[in-house]
Specification:
It is built from 7 helices and 11 strands. It has 216 residues and is an alpha/beta fold. Strands 1, 2, 3, 4, 5, 6, 7, 10 and 11 form a 9-stranded mixed β-sheet that branches. A two-stranded antiparallel ribbon has the order 8-9. α2 (13-22) crosses α5 (172-194).
């Protein structure tokens, strides 16, 4: 039997977002998009937070040695797009080590390297200026906020062409079950429309609006 994570990987972020909405949970990350429309990622969060640098300049990226295969690196740089916290060296290192992908509340660079390597990278923007001496590593393995969406280590991170959702680990089975029901219902509605029913009738027949409000 598939695990909840495997089931989540087969679902679009739209269905997971609808399920999170219906359950009253935050999780849809605003303003973070994939570099490529074909990018997909699913995995437990490995959290990283940056802060503005001062006299103690620090470094950018050394945490990557500690990321386990299959994890998704989630970086909170407070949405800054004036300097980068991820580039080509990090992409190639992560790809070699089997990291599932990277989500950045901030900017990345060396976009062509990530696209050519088919490495799933999602960010708030892209900009070539280095983050060295501009930001420093503040925390690894801590709770983050991605534009108001809380993320703690091991929360499930799912990304596709529509963006990124974060599902609390403790609620994953529940969210996946509801998202699966929503996805099946939408497929049934499309089938009914193709068979000649009106969209209004098809939605009413399958309780579409009630399903999306379930649990509120």
């Amino acid at each position: 039997m598939d695990t909840p994570t495997q089931r989540a990987a087969a679902l679009p972020t739209a269905a997971l977002s609808d399920a999170l909405d219906a359950l009253g949970l935050p999780g849809s990350v605003l303003g973070v998009a994939p570099l490529s429309p074909t990018a997909r990622l699913t995995g437990p969060a490995f959290t990283v937070r940056y802060e503005p640098a001062d006299a103690d300049k620090g470094s950018v990226g050394d945490f990557l040695d500690d990321v386990p295969p299959g994890a998704v690196v989630v970086i909170d740089n407070a949405g800054r797009t004036d300097c980068t916290v991820w580039g080509g060296i990090m992409t190639q290192t992560a790809a070699v080590r089997g990291v599932a992908g990277t989500v950045i509340h901030g900017a990345c660079r060396d976009v062509s390297t990530s696209v050519e390597a088919d490495y799933p990278l999602f960010s708030s923007g892209r900009f070539m200026r280095t983050g060295k001496d501009r930001v420093r590593l503040a925390a690894v393995g801590a709770e983050l906020s991605l534009g108001g969406v809380p993320v703690v280590p091991d929360d499930l991170v799912r990304g596709d062409a529509d963006g990124v959702v974060v599902v609390p680990a403790a609620r994953l089975p529940e969210v996946v079950e509801l998202a699966t029901r929503i996805e099946r219902t939408e497929a049934d509605i499309v089938a009914a429309v193709r068979a000649g029913h009106s969209l209004r009738r098809a939605r009413a027949s399958f309780g579409y609006h009630l399903l999306q409000r379930s649990g509120r």
